[in-house]
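A reminder from the course coordinator: this example appears on the midterm review sheet, so study it carefully.

Given structure:
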């Protein structure tokens, strides 16, 4: 079967808006958290988010948005975007340039796009508010395509003239990991030659604050203490937004174009907990099954895995569930497998997380480093046995795994390999 490679990356994240700055942040364990002004009210218990720098999207009118001058986006495109669409458009331009794709490579029947986003609660609220207050005929005719859950794929498909397969994925925090898995399958099965995989979220009040009602957000006011995956003192996750785009291509396309890939996508697996609508199975059964399915699909033994980029969001239940799943899968090999969650640096990107963190894995495989566990001071006793490096390790990993989990107990694991 055809081999699949990652050939391009694009980033708009709390820890950097290009591959070079993201790599520096991962190596130096430099987080992207700031005290968030809209949260500084007595009635709002959480105070910190992973902010997106150099972009201003506070207004419901895209005409008021600000973004780096190097991105040239036509007004008619901006008018149909949510904030996450702006982030994704800019990340897409980066990924196309990084993969050295010509216009003909992007727009043809053999190139598709899968996207993952929760839509824009911010714009959805704005447009619905106008509907009830001033009447339906004074609402924007573009309000629906700019706000509902498919807004990301609607806009990118139209803007970049995508002619191949396209779809939006909705499995909460596993969404973009699912998109990556199914994109891999389309390439392996010969349905497409190239796939863009995009994750993006608004990362603003409307996207993040509702999680406080679930008691899942950290209440720490100190950005250095707010996101502590696997730490005994963790008290919830930090929300973030932004976008990451990955370009996946078949081996034949890589050879035809003469490009150097970041990494190979060996395979993936998925499984469901069948347990609870919002809480991970306490023993991590679905996560363990997804990892085992991924290893089998990739033809990789547990002893061959060098690093796991964990889903661990810094919640009390989720981190322990994943730790138990890792013990069940890696058994006696657990001490040699480095484990970290880069959400300690970025925050939790929700449906964006799987794509963003897979791209981090690709950077590490290409550049020879394993991200450490930022902010980890005292590991939870329930996570005993995990190899949790406190600092980034400057060593070459050969095979890495990326875990993602979402509401309803949806679990995805992806396996990546270094390109020699």
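Designed residues:
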């Amino acid at each position: 079967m055809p081999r699949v490679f990652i050939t391009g990356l694009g980033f708009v994240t709390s820890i950097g808006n290009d591959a070079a700055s993201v790599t520096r942040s991962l190596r130096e364990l430099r987080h992207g958290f700031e005290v968030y002004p809209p949260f500084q009210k007595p009635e709002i218990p959480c105070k910190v988010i992973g902010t997106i720098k150099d972009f201003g999207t506070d207004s419901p009118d895209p005409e008021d948005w600000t973004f780096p001058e190097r991105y040239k986006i036509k007004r008619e495109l901006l008018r149909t975007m949510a904030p996450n669409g702006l982030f994704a458009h800019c990340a897409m331009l980066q990924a196309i340039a990084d993969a050295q794709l010509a216009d003909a490579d992007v727009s043809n029947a053999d190139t598709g796009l899968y996207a993952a986003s929760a839509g824009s609660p911010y714009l959805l609220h704005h447009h619905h508010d106008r509907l009830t207050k001033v009447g339906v005929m004074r609402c924007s005719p573009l309000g629906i395509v700019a706000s509902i859950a498919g807004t990301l794929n609607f806009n990118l498909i139209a803007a970049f003239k995508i002619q191949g397969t396209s779809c939006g994925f909705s499995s909460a925090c596993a969404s973009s990991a699912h998109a990556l898995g199914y994109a891999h399958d389309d390439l392996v099965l010969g349905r497409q030659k190239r796939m863009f995989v995009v994750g993006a979220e608004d990362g603003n009040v409307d996207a993040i604050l509702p999680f406080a009602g679930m008691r899942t957000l950290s209440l720490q006011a100190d950005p250095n203490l707010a996101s502590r995956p696997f730490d005994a003192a963790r008290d919830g996750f930090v929300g973030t937004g932004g976008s990451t785009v990955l370009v996946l291509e078949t081996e034949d396309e890589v050879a035809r174009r003469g490009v150097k890939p970041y990494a190979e996508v060996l395979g993936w697996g998925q499984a469901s907990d069948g347990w609870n609508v919002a809480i991970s199975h306490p023993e991590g059964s679905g996560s363990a099954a997804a990892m085992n399915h991924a290893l089998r699909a990739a033809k990789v033994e547990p002893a061959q895995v060098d690093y796991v980029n964990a889903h661990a969001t810094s919640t009390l239940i989720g981190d322990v569930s994943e730790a138990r799943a890792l013990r069940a899968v890696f058994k006696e090999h657990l001490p040699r497998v480095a484990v970290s969650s880069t959400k300690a640096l970025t925050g939790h990107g929700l449906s964006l997380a799987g794509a963003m963190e897979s791209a981090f894995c690709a950077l590490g495989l290409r550049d020879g480093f394993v991200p450490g566990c930022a902010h980890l001071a005292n590991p939870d006793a329930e996570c005993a046995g995990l190899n949790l490096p406190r600092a980034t390790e400057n060593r070459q990993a050969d095979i890495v795994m990326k875990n993602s989990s979402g509401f309803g107990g949806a679990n995805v694991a992806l396996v990546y390999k270094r390109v020699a």
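The mean pLDDT is 97. The longest strand covers residues 263-272.
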